[in-house]
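User: Okay, second chain of the day. Same drill as before: sequence in, structure tokens out.
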Amino acid sequence: MSASPQPAAEKNGFKNQTIRVGTRKSQLARIQTDSVVQGLQEHHPHLCFEIVAMSTTGDKILDTALSKIGEKSLFTKELENALERNEVDLVVHSLKDLPTSLPAGFTIGAVCKRENPHDAVVFHPKHAGKTLSSLPEKSVIGTSSLRRAAQLKRGFPRLEFKDIRGNLNTRLKKLDEKEDFSAIVLATAGLRRMGWDSRIGQILSPMDCLYAVGQGALAVEVRAKDQEILDMVSVLHDRETVLRCIAERAFMKHLEGGCSVPVAVNTVLKDFQLYLTGAVYSLDGSECLQETMQTSLSCPEEEESEDGPSDDVQHVGITARGIPRSAQEAAEKLGIRLAELLLSKGAKHILTVARQLNEA
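Assistant: Same drill. Structure tokens below.
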């Protein structure tokens, strides 16, 4: 990547005191970016932060299901282009929007503490107080996710599922102002960040619906060789979130999954034991492979050296400075082992058929 004529940082510290932060234009993206900037400002009070908002392909194409567009970086490409051109110094994403393999030259320099990763059901006002189980037969549920639809078709065969697109504001408006949907399924994290807890009618348990890889976590993407920016953002890493998300992303990557196939996870970190549940589904939910594995993360706390390439080993696109490497490696291996187990039981066939049906 070519160097900027006016780099944001120099070896002896930040020369230009304004750090430019790239984000999508949606209200939720801005709220998420503001929270990241607030965290950075607390740790780096001497710096100024300027937010640069832009539209992405995913924001512009609203009449097609996400899974059918076939572009892996729907919500990230334009932001990464700006990062590559040195127009911004870092970019804030929802981690679930980031592919498990990032373009060369980029890394996730921070993964912030995760909000509730589970899915939530928001009901049409006339169904307030109900649950999915108590909705009338053939009620239509809106979701833009193959993962949600496959699992909920399996658990609630009496209901019907229909694609709904748009940002959170748009989808809630479609729900409230029309009679097309009895309910829609959204990420709990987004609703909470928007301050819309009161709209959550039901939070789906892992028994009903496993969540998306990385759901509920925010990621800060940076140029992999920009040591000063990497150092600056690494203070935001949340150890538990990082290790859970490394396992989830490694599972997804080894399966070669993406938004065009139904892959779901659930992770728990307790007493230095990391538990990973992973599943793959056919599009209609009739076929499902699900398994759980665990690994121990009880490793000696490694002392992080000041600098040097050994600190910057990426695990599924994440550079986690200050978090023991042996723990990161164990989390990544757990994801790979679980993926291999599902592949040995026929996951590849289920995912191949799901991908072909979706593309058709």
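Residues 325-344 form the longest helix (20 residues).

User: Thanks, on to the next one.
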